[in-house]
Amino acid sequence: MNMSTAEVxxxxxxxxxxxxxxxxxxxxxxxxxxxxxxxTKWRQNLVDDIKTFDDLDALLExxxxxxxxxxxxxxxx
Length: 77
Known about the structure:
By secondary structure, the chain is mainly α. 68% of the residues lie in helices and 0% in strands. The chain has two domains: 1-36; 38-67. 0% of the residues are buried.
């Protein structure tokens, strides 16, 4: 099922506002827009060292232990 751009934006804003609150969501979005944020470049350092499934498992374990999320997180790389 393909989502439209509007649906993706709606889901993203809902996620941000649920977990950050309205004020921090606004700050997050304004910072990303102002800084010309490149998400791909920012995330690249996380995957540079992943060569095997063991490396990926180690990353997932490390990130889950640091996560403050109160649900069941999906890891997005």
